[in-house]
Hints:
- By secondary structure, this protein is of the alpha/beta class.
- The protein has a single domain (4-223), classed as 2-enoyl-CoA Hydratase, Chain A, domain 1 (Alpha-Beta Complex), CATH 3.90.226.10.
- It has twelve helices and eight strands.
Amino acid sequence: MRDLSLAVDGRIGVLTLDRAAVHNRLSRALMEGLLAACRELAARDDVWIVVLQARGRDFSTGVDLADPAHAAAASAPLGERRRLLRLGPDLVHAIQDLPQTTIAAMHGYCLGGGGCLALACDLRVAAADLRFGMPEVTRGMNMNWHSVALMVAHFGPARTKELLVTGKLLDAETAHRWGLANRVTEAGEHAVQREALAWAREIAATVPPIPAAMVKETVNAVANLATSLLHMDRDQFILAQTSEDAREALAAFRAKRPPRFAGR
């Protein structure tokens, strides 16, 4: 598809988000394409490592709120809305469940849904210009996409609350210190992609894929003990969007002004 490419080089599969003009915001079409690509990769025994990267200044600034397909979901009847909002969690799970070892090459802004894609990967390389954050709560929304469980698994409860409640951005060194980034490299997309690809080749050359997949499954099973609560993400997200504060947060974001919350 136009906004996403999948290239295979030997044992390495490279998925590239390609909406650089809009900071790789996640349209519904892009998300569906990424989900389809994950399903294709899951069936390929010849690909042992998958790198997830993005073109342009930023890895991804999250869901594209201007996408008409996302807007339609926001105004759909409740039952349909719950169904449509499964796409994000399904995409995260598809990345997590890939039998291959996955590496996210993060640079620039990596926010919201974009951050969830990176968290769903097994390993992460951060460029020095990384700014990672989850701004949903500060914009009047609850978290979705299995993101709370992912963050607790990576950061622990206290740091997850700090990240979500304050909307703070993590730079590359903090991301490394907090356990988000396994490696830090020079700033920019090209530097981080080179490092991620070199690491992928190193793993492919030295690690057999079957025991690697087994270890991955075990670690994920231990880390994802809260999966029985995932329905709460979606329903709380829908409920939070009905509040006055959520409408005010969105209006303020679009008008580029500070929000005026009323606690309603």
